[in-house]
Write a structure and sequence with these properties.
Elements lengths: L20 E4 L5 E3 L4 E3 L6 H11 L2 E3 L8 E6 L37 E6 L2 E6 L2 H14 L1 E2 L5 E3 L2 E5 L5 E7 L7 H13 L4 E5 L15 H6 L14 H12 L4 E8 L4 H6 L28 H17 L4 E5 L8 H17 L3 E5 L12 E4 L7 H8 L3 E4 L2 H4 L21 H5 L3 H4 L8 E8 L7 H8 L2 H10 L7 H8 L2 H7 L15
Parallel strand pairs: 3-4, 3-5, 5-7, 11-12, 11-18, 12-13, 13-14, 14-15, 15-16, 16-17, 17-18
Antiparallel strand pairs: 1-10, 2-9, 6-7, 6-10, 8-9
The chain binds acetamide.
The site of acetamide has 4 residues, from loops.
């Protein structure tokens, strides 16, 4: 070790979210030499391999010379068979599957991974590129530098898979426009926390941020500004495609939201025939909610819903489109149900599955519809009933996962209508018991949300996300019996230095003894 130096961190590996199993092995650490080979025989593993090579300063190769220490990435068949068959035999000719000790199998699930670091190399196995990506995220958190500057990985066996299939982050790009480049930073942060759904709240009273071919006036008239008159903007179809591809390459699906039948002033400002008066409404750049609405009886309304949901579905490769449905004040239940039903039918006709905020649970829903819980003051009975009748519940409780809530009274950014949300509040809750009576199979996942009424810059956004995003990510990823606040606070402490190194603004919660 004298040439290599000693390892600085003595607290043990700090992986967030906490893996299903992380076993420290009694071996020496693996020392990575510059230019180390990242071996990925399967073409589908190449993107993950490039990411790993960039992380460690290595080079991607299809095969390695015998007896050379390598980082090896493998995709196994979903049935447990090696996809690449004999090509993946080890250097000594022994098939890959036989080298795995019993009891160390890759956990079930498409996103599972197995990571083994030994003094002579690293082996990563997964069933999908997304699983490989999660393993690389774990490797990034395990990587340390010795006092002499060498990169080392501790000898470990990690067996890991997510608890929930949907681990999301919703970003409001309507109240304040968020440029594609800034969203890419957010996507990278999501991948760093093993999140897999980016939900974009693309429209609201203040603005319509996505250019749709059938309705060009939406962005032409209604995207020029943000709350308070701040600069606006919109995404072209090319911008959106680029962002979706960037996210998909990191294992993240984009779920676009066009919020109807309330939160629609931007649409009414662009198209006068959506209002009973026949005239466009005024631009609105304040932060009130609940005052705007579509009207079921107007002939233009059905065509509008059909056009905009058809367009956004066609532009979105992922399986879900979000129809909003929240906070419509003063609309009769029948009219609300009609409008939600029309939007949902347009989404389904375009081949996508429907997501909506919790209010849609009061309307007739097709089985499989995703209901996103958010307002903890509402009577939960309709959501539990919807889950029992075949809907799936996505949990975004405002007092836990609304990451635009102030950390404490007087905090300069954010709002406080759902309470003050410190790091521990985001961490210390249990999805399975949040809605008592909800059938376990109806629980689809957990999603953080950040609304941007008061958030004007990327620094504002990341300051609200970090460190709470790490807490919500662990709630969504880690098994219930692997979660413990005291344990989390010691692990998350190591992330601060990484955020500093990445130049990210973040909130140094006094609940953690940060390593900086
Ligand atoms: C919401 O916070 N209105 C979904």
């Amino acid at each position: 070790m004298s040439l290599v130096g000693s390892v600085r961190h003595v607290t043990g590996p700090a992986v967030v979210p906490r893996p299903l199993r992380l076993q420290q092995l009694p071996d020496e650490p693996f020392v990575l030499l510059p230019g180390i080979a990242v071996v990925a025989p399967d073409a589908a593993a190449r993107h993950a391999a490039q990411r790993l090579a960039a992380l460690v300063g290595g080079s991607v190769q299809a095969a390695a010379a015998p007896d050379t220490p390598v980082l090896r990435l493998r995709l196994l068949g979903r049935d447990g068979d090696d996809l690449a068959g004999d090509d993946l035999a080890d250097d000594d000719g022994q098939p890959a599957a036989e080298r795995l000790p019993t009891g160390d199998e890759l956990p079930v699930g498409d996103e599972a991974y197995r990571l083994r670091v030994r003094p002579d190399g690293v082996e990563v196995d997964a069933r999908t590129p997304a699983g490989l990506g999660h393993a690389i995220t774990t490797l990034a958190q395990l990587l340390t530098r010795t006092t002499a500057g060498a990169q080392v990985l501790p000898a470990v066996l990690v067996l890991d898979a997510p608890r929930f299939a949907w681990r999301g982050l919703s970003i409001d790009v309507a109240r304040h426009f968020v440029r594609v480049g800034d969203l890419e930073v957010v996507v990278d942060l999501m991948a760093d926390h093993k999140l897999n759904v980016l939900h974009l709240h693309l429209t609201d009273d203040q603005a319509w941020r996505i250019d749709l071919p059938s309705r060009p006036e939406l962005v032409r008239r209604s995207s020029g500004a943000s709350v308070g008159g701040d600069p606006g903007g919109h995404y072209t179809a090319e911008d959106y495609a680029r962002l979706v591809a960037y996210a998909v390459a990191r294992g993240i699906a984009v779920v676009p939201e066009l919020d109807v039948p309330g939160h629609v002033n931007a649409a009414l400002h662009a198209y006068g025939d959506l209002s009973p008066s026949g005239r466009p409404t005024d631009e609105y750049l304040g932060i009130e909610v609940g005052f705007s609405r579509l009207t079921a009886a107007l002939p233009a309304t059905g065509a509008f819903l059909h056009d905009v949901f058809g367009d956004i579905a066609a532009m979105t490769p992922g399986p879900y489109v979000h129809i909003g449905g929240d906070e419509v004040q003063g609309m009769a239940p029948d009219e609300y149900a009609t409008l939600v039903g029309t939007a949902a039918a347009a989404v389904r006709a375009a081949g996508k599955q429907v997501v909506g905020w919790q209010e849609i649970a009061t309307t007739p829903l097709e089985p499989g519809t995703v209901v996103q819980y958010w307002d903890v003051h509402a009577d939960p009975a309709p959501f539990v009933a919807a889950g029992a009748a075949g809907a799936r519940l996505l949990l975004s409780p405002g007092d836990r996962t609304y990451l635009d809530m102030k950390y404490h009274p007087g905090y300069p950014l954010g709002l406080e209508w759902a309470g003050h949300v410190e790091l521990r509040d985001s961490y210390d809750w249990e999805p399975a018991t949040l809605l008592p009576g909800l059938p376990a199979e109806a629980l689809l996942g957990v999603e953080a949300a950040v609304w941007t009424e008061t958030l004007r810059t990327l620094d504002d956004l990341t300051t609200m996300l970090l460190p709470r995003l790490a807490a919500v990510a662990e709630v969504a990823w880690s098994a219930a019996d692997r979660r413990d606040w005291e344990d989390f606070r010691t692990r998350v402490a190591a992330l601060g230095a990484r955020w500093d190194a990445a130049g990210l603004s973040w909130y140094p919660s006094p609940q953690v003894d940060w390593q900086r």
